[in-house]
Design a protein that fits this description.
Elements: E1 17-22, H1 38-52, E2 57-62, H2 70-77, H3 81-105, E3 110-114, E4 123-124, H4 127-135, E5 139-143, H5 153-164, E6 168-173, E7 178-179, E8 191-192, E9 194-196, H6 197-202, H7 210-218, E10 223-227, H8 233-238, E11 245-248
Parallel strand pairs: 1-2, 1-6, 2-5, 3-4, 3-5, 6-10, 9-11
Antiparallel strand pairs: 7-8, 10-11
Helix pairs in contact: 1-3, 2-3, 5-7
């Protein structure tokens, strides 16, 4: 699916259009416990701006785990799972608006499209309109998940990537790729540079949740897992540098 596109001197993007999946939990301030850390928000915006400047068409999906995670609401807070998932979807709206505000203050045009209608703060998700926005150089943030409970923002990323015919899903995480076991707990954990979908399934590696992974596998959508906070990580990935772990055919 991945088309190549031209860029600035020294940086030639490998992909014409991408979906960037960001963790909501990454936005949380570790010191104060505030849901959104302005400094981290600006770092994310800076990294996105570098890729946008190359003419790459960008779709963003951001989680809501810094505010509310629906799958844990029932277990720890006594919230019905369906209700909790809708609360989590609304949390992604908050994060999407924060990203929009930060990017626009830095000169990047943005449109937020929501899978749940709330016309006063976001456009409804309309595929053709989303593609048109990206063709005009606007970053599109896909908010409110799929609009349905029991689906994660990983699944949202896989679905939207397939719909807009992105060249790759870039999943920004806290670790620098996919390992055979948790590298935080195991010093001897081995990092994979590249995996096939079948290998990832056979080895039971947690690249994405099962629904999202199946969507990617069925639609031959490559997944690149990398560490968000590495310098120029998104730029380097977009330009084809071998960072993180690539899961593909």
């Amino acid at each position: 699916m991945g088309d190549e596109t031209s860029g600035q001197p020294g940086h030639t993007p490998k992909y014409k259009r991408i979906i960037l999946k960001l963790s909501g939990e990454a936005l949380k301030c570790s010191d104060s416990g505030e849901a959104i850390d302005g400094g981290i928000l600006q770092i994310m915006a800076d990294e996105i701006m570098k890729v946008h400047a190359l003419g790459v068409q960008i779709g963003l999906v951001v989680g809501g785990g810094n505010i509310f995670r629906g799958s844990l609401g029932e277990k720890y807070r006594g919230v019905d799972r369906t209700t909790g998932d809708y609360m989590g979807m609304l949390a992604t709206i908050v994060n999407s608006l924060a990203l929009m505000d930060c990017l626009e203050k830095n000169g990047v045009p943005v449109r937020v499209q929501s899978a749940i209608r709330m016309d006063r703060v976001a456009e409804p998700f309309i595929l053709r309109r989303a593609i048109r926005h990206m063709e005009k150089g606007r970053v599109v943030i896909f908010a409110a998940g799929t609009g349905n409970p029991y689906f994660s923002t990983d699944t949202t990323a896989a679905l939207r990537a397939s719909e807009i015919q992105a060249g790759v899903i870039m999943k920004a995480t806290k670790v620098d790729g996919v390992y055979d076991k948790d590298p935080v707990k195991h010093a001897d954990a081995v990092k994979y540079d590249k995996l096939s979908y079948t290998e990832a399934l056979t080895k039971r590696l947690k690249v994405m949740d099962s629904t999202a992974f199946s969507l990617c596998m069925d639609n031959h959508m490559p997944i690149l897992v990398f560490r968000m906070m590495d310098t120029d990580a998104i730029l380097r990935a977009v330009c084809g540098e071998a960072i993180g772990t690539l899961v593909a055919d």
